[in-house]
Amino acid sequence: MAGHGPDRRAWSPAETVITPANVATVTAGWSATLTAPDTEPVSDANTVIQAGQGTIRALDRASGSQRWSVSGDAAMPPAIRNGTLISALGSTVCVLQTRALATGVLGPSATFGGFTVPPGSISMCSPGGAIVTIGDTILFTHTTAALGTGVHCGGTGWEFATDVVAVNGNLIPEWSHEETQGACGLPDFSTLIGYSETATDGTRAFVVRGSTLSAFALSCASPCAPSWSVDVGQPIVGAPIVLANGDVAVGDKAGTLSARHAATGAADWSSTSEPGAANTSTSPAATDASVFMTGPDGTVRSYAAAGCGSPTCSPTWTAPIGATPAQRASIGGGVLYVPASGNGLVTFDARGCGAATCSALKTIVAAHPITGPPAIVGGRVIVPTRSDIETFALPTT
After folding, report:
1. Which of 50, 151, 178, 328 has its CA 20 to 30 A from that of 38?
2. CA-to-CA distance for 149 and 337, rounded, in angstroms?
3. Taking the model in full, what pTM does it have?
4. 177 phi/psi in degrees, rounded to 5
């Protein structure tokens, strides 16, 4: 699934093929021409799934040949669970769908959201973030908005609802949480912020909504109320991540990384204010030892995942990527892969270099501008670009 697992850390700890010792030798592997693949690839042992521009394509992981494709299924990164692909799409309602991963044959589906509105009014439902699965539970978010005459009142009005939903492997709802707004007149659309990205530690679901991080017990019953909610003061960027010590961490638009106790939401530690980190647009990534944030100044900042013993922590090391970051970083085999704006995928030793400032191991250059985070699977680096999926591997892989 997106983020390489339900903790959303973007780390593949089982990857051992490409390492800091040999990443400089990677070369281009297969590529598959696609139309603007604009989400993170997800993969199992045999199949790479790429969603973008309303289409999902299944590619053979070894050769890149297309196995099947379907249109209309791809609103957010899907997830793979037990040989089944789970995807979400939006329209007047949101639909959660399953397909056989090997063949693309449609399986069970379920609808969520949607308003009943008078003729001439508009109602639309949109999935909010990547689908996350753990055990028999599937987590996803969606937002529904309606506008028109007779909506909420006799004249022009609007309704807005945003939901966090947990279903089981048969798409039967386990619990949900919904928040609604509505009024006469036209809405201030800038204030209508829905639930988006999700992560889980196996006990709780952590969900982002604007600048707020909320926790929901996976054992909840509908209507499910948050165990806790915390406003971090700035819009949260991307997905929350669950750290090795059990904390949940988020990065925000100001470039601040903050870690909180999973059970209570109480602050554990946060990063120092760093020049050049403001207006961050990429979410954090983490190993067991370190958490990485990349600021718009083109600097990777590494922090100790367990904190530093103080409420505010400075980076343990930094590194320039030579450009504005384009997407969230990914980690595998001890290598940190940072997409830079344009075609560059800059690599670093995720352990650092023993100095305060580290240099890149290699910049992998894609043939086209990178449009999503890379996936590190099976000894391959799988990169979505504006025109295709490109892979990189060791010469013998």
Report:
1. 178
2. 50
3. 0.95
4. -135, 130
